[in-house]
Amino acid sequence: MISQATLVSPCLAALQEELLYGNHTALVTFWREITAQGAPLIETIPGDDIHVLVTFLWQATEEIQNVVVAGALVGWNISENQMSR
User: Fold this and answer.
1) How high is the pLDDT of residue 11?
2) What is the C-alpha separation between 69 and 43, in angstroms, rounded?
3) What does the pLDDT read at residue 81?
């Protein structure tokens, strides 16, 4: 299985590239698509026919301290489940 540290969302990588190239509408388009499709973002993992890459997303209009994913699948330990930018 692929190391977790090497997993990068192809969708987020493409968004980052678009933003770096100056596509100022890319972020608005991204969130519009996520709103239409729903979240989390679920993508295939090249070379792995069993697992999928699940990326939880958040969007905030004001500054927030942290975002935590908690539940039966990931557990309830807040310090281990904080999301990162």
Assistant:
1) 95
2) 18
3) 80
Dihedral sign of CA atoms 18, 20, 22, 25 in order: positive
Q: How far is CA 51 from CA 18, 34, 44, 71, 76, in A?
A: 27, 21, 7, 19, 22
Amino acid at 75: G
Q: Report residue 3's pLDDT band, with 50, 70 and 90 as the boundaries.
A: low
As a three-state string, the secondary structure of the chain is CCCHHHCCCHHHHHHHHHHHCCCCCHHHHHHHHHHHHCCCEEEEECCEEEEEEEECCCCCCCCCCCCECCECCCECCHHHCECCC
Predicted local distance difference test score (pLDDT) of residue 70: 83
In tens, the pLDDT along 23-44 reads 999 999 999 999 999 989 999 9
Domain regions of the chain by residue span: 4-80
